[in-house]
Every structure is written in structure tokens, then in C-alpha cells.
UniProtKB/TrEMBL annotation:
Organism the protein comes from: Ophiocordyceps camponoti-rufipedis
Residue ranges, annotated region (Disordered): 468-511
PANTHER family: PH-RESPONSE REGULATOR PROTEIN PALC
Entry-linked PROSITE patterns: BRO1
InterPro entries to which the protein is assigned, alphabetical: BRO1_dom (IPR004328), BRO1_sf (IPR038499), pH-resp_palC (IPR037505)
BP-aspect Gene Ontology terms: cellular response to pH
The protein's name in its UniProt record: pH-response regulator protein palC
A single GO cellular-component term on record: plasma membrane
Family: Belongs to the palC family.
UniProt cross-references to Gene3D superfamilies, sorted A to Z: alix/aip1 like domains
Amino acid sequence: MAVIRADSLVPAITTKLQLHKPQRFTSPTMPFPFVLPTTSSFSFSSSFSCDSHPSLCHSASAQRGVVRDALRRHKRLPPSSRAASLSNVITSIDGYLPYLFAVDAGFGSETLVGGESINVVLNKAPSIQWRPTLSGDIVPGRERRRITISSLEYEIFFVLSTLAFAYVSVARSILQPLHVTTGDFVGAKERTTAIQTANKHLLDAAAIYEYLADRSEQIATAPPCIDVAPTTARALASLAMAEATLLAVTKDDPYPAAVAQSRNKNDKEWMFKSADMPKPKAHLNARLCLAASDHATKAVSLLKQQGGSGVNKASSGLTRYVDDLRSTCRAKACRFFGIHAEMDGQVAEGIGWLRAGLHALDVDVKDRESSIGLGFSKLRKGLAEKREDRRVEKETAWGSDAGRLEETRVLEMLEAKWNKINDTMNTQVIPPLNSLLAKMPSGREIFTPQPYKPSTLSRDTLEAMRCLPEGEEDGAGGHEASSDDEPGGPSVIGSYPEFEAGQTPSGSAYY
């Protein structure tokens, strides 16, 4: 009996239309929505002194104040406006890091640019406050409590991790237009450029996490919270590698676009153009997805092995996202193996791989086939899709399921299509799940992140700091009060923000 391929049943209405109509895509891959931490003011001169470069501590405090102001302003912006302030946050941190590393190098025998040596003396232990964003579960309407660090190593950890969070957030803002389903889709060239740029930011974040993990292993004291733990840095490095690898696969994956275009009321290209992929590319993408799944599995293991509580436990949102990413990567690998089998004419084996992907996503095929389960699952999935679409449009916490819902749509679309072909024409026996999983190969890496190199001060800058500092050092970085410095006393209900508890009205007030 002749074997009929699934793609041959989808006719191309007009060849000319296919050539001249731009190809459009969407992307189901989205990085984790990190929240940037905030910090209190701190004066380096209150804890350190430098005889070789008297202005170093003053300059470091000034640069840190700029970072504090940038983080404070970013936090106060609405979610839809925060993407525009990320460049200001990254610039301020890049300006602060050379001074921070210079103070840190002054404790040892390290030499900086131009052979300049710095001698920094610790007068008393510093007391710096940071508000963590990964520790424990947050109570709705309340913020996590601040933690106090007394080591310069943890200051470096917080600053660098904030920089990595900003890189990941920039990647999210670049990918956000690719997820919108209510407007026109982004063209192929613009989409490729966006994915490549987002990948660069994810790899830069992974390099920072690896640097922090290697550096923090030399600290003898226990970390004050999970945000600055070595295992957390390793987990976030693996997470960034998994996201970057999966994003590279998405660039050559037309099937999520076919599903998204069918859901877009403004796009009709899905009616005449079928998804297609070269056969060798399908098998390669499957192995890349397995490598991404391995990275995500490592991240889940590192986050769960800490097993603490409160500030010593990772938030459930982060752990759930990484676990969903692991499942999505494995399901996507099964789908590509199924596409490869279908291209060989083995439609039944392709259906088996699709069911293996649904099993990886904890989707029960038997429940979907029953009428009651099908109706309830459709209703629940429809509500989830509408909520996710609204999140993407409002640029809030979209993508919290790591593309799990999007991959389920693709698997169900292909399974329905191939089942119809297998039931009416090919009538092949669908192989069992275990026999397919036994043939699954190992993953294949595609990226090797470059090691992070700490920035240093130039020789001219170091020479200029040999003079005495001008003016007084406040370390606040501005005169506006931040949420971290606002008094925590009770406020009077119904009063203006400027009204303080215990304040009595004046007798000369005009009513």
C-alpha cells in the first residue's frame, strides 16, 4: 500500500501568493520574568579607607548611588513601562562594577590596569541591605523583607545577579512582539534578528551566573538568602542555557506559528501555507531540545536540593517555571522525532512520538478522548489561552508556563491531523511509549558561553583618584526617598501621604 504523507494533503492554493506574501512566525519560548531587587544607601567611607587612592571610596559610593536610583525608579514604573528603563539600569551597573571590583582588589595583592596597586583597609564590617526577589513565596500585597549583608562578596553577588536579571529582562522585551496574536506577525528577517539578539543577552546572563557560582564557592560563611547561594547561581546558569538553546530551535520551528496564525483573526496565511521543515533539521532540533531539557533538569535539581524555608528556599514560581521548561523541552524533542518519522512515511510512529510528548506534559490521552474530559479540557484550555494573550498584550508576567500551553496546542494539532490520515489511509499500528523512549538519543549542545571578565578601571581614572575627594559623601545617590528607606510607622487611614501619625491639626488652618 502506498504511504501518503500528511503535508501532501494540504494544497497550496496559489504558488505566486506563497512567493510574494511574507512568511510570518511566532515564538513560544520566553525567559523567566525576573524582578530586579532594590537596595539601601551605603557609604564605602564608613567601612573602608584607601591611602593609595583616597577618592576611591567616595567615587564607589557615588556610582552605587546611581545604581540605587536606577533600581528604585525601575521598580516604581508600571510593568508595561519597565522595559524602557532596563538600558538605564544596565548602564548604571556597568559604571559601578569597575569601582566595586577595584575596592575588592584592594584587599589582596592584585594589580590593576597599568600596574596600579590599591591598598584598601577594612575599618568595620559593612552593613548593606538588599531586598531579595527569589527567596520564598511572596504574600500578595506585601514585599519580601530586606536582608542585611556584611560582606563585599555578597554585594558583588547581588550587583552581578541584578545585571544578569536585566539581561534576561531585555531578552523578554525583545521577544514580546513575537508572541502577540492580536496584531500583524513579525516578518522572518526581523524575527531572526530578534531571536539572535535575545540569545546573546541570555548567554551573557549565563556567563555571569557561572562566574558568580565559581566565585561564591570560595566564601566560607553561609549565604544570608538563596539569592546569593552558589547552587542558585549554577541553577540560573543552567536555566539561561536551556532558554537560549530552546530559543535557537524556535527560530527554525514553523509549527507553533501555524497554530498561532490559525488563532489570529487578522491573519489568513495559515489557510494556504502549510508548515514545512527539512528532514535533517527535524532530527537536529530534537537533539537540541534534549540538551535544553538536560539543562533544565539540572536547574530543577539544584533549586530543590537546598530544601530550606523562608529566605533559604527558592520561590515556587521559579521552581515551577523551570520544571515546566524541562517538560516543554522534552515534549518538543518528542514532536521533532515524530516529524522526522512522519517524513519517512511512518505516520503511526509519528503519532506515538506525539503522544510521548503529551505524556511529558502530563496530558492524558485517554481523558482527552472521552466526551466529558474533552469538553472540560477545552473550556479550561480556552480560558488559559485568553489569560495568556492578555498578559502578552499588557506586557505583564506572560510566559510563566515556559511555553507549555503553546506546545500542547502544536502536539494536539499534529495528532489530530495524523490520526485522520492513519485511520483512513495508512492504518499503521501505533508503537507503545516505552519502545520509542528507548530509542531516544542523547542531547547535542549548540552554545558555549564565553567566560565573564570583570571590568576594571582605566589607568587615567586610577591616577585621578590619588587626590583627595571633593565634597561630602552621602552614598544616597539622590535626595528622593525610596521604598527601602521610607519609615515603617503606622499611617492614619484616610490621610494624605505627607500626614504623619501623631500630627495634630493647626489652629490657623483654613477650612
